[in-house]
Specification:
It is a single chain. This protein is of the alpha+beta class. About 20% of the residues lie in helices and about 40% in strands. The protein has two helices and five strands. Strands 3-2-1-4-5 form a five-stranded antiparallel β-sheet, covered by helices on one side. A hairpin with a 4-residue loop joins strand 1 and strand 2.
Length: about 80
């Protein structure tokens, strides 16, 4: 079973094709090699350090709300999307 998490892009390094994203206050550098046209403020689904695709803020909000309801993340992160 795989789990991809929606995260917000905070910065992009175009030379390395990477981005810094965060969830629950944890920042992580991820690869953007598999997606195109990602900009700061976009939401991407991340699995094992790779952005798989972009998602809308609405879809990210719904997913994070479900994860918060299940107790997998804090409720504040689900509220912070929009």
């Amino acid at each position: 079973m795989c789990l991809a998490l929606p995260v917000k892009v905070h910065s992009i390094n175009t030379d390395a094709d990477t981005a810094v994203v965060s969830l629950e206050g944890v920042k992580k550098e991820i690869s953007l090699a598999l997606v195109e046209d990602v900009e700061i403020g976009d939401y991407v689904l991340v699995h094992v350090g790779f952005a798989l695709n972009k998602v809308s803020p609405e879809e990210a909000e719904k997913t994070l709300a479900l994860m918060a309801e299940a107790g997998l993340i804090g409720a504040n992160d689900a509220d912070a999307v929009a």
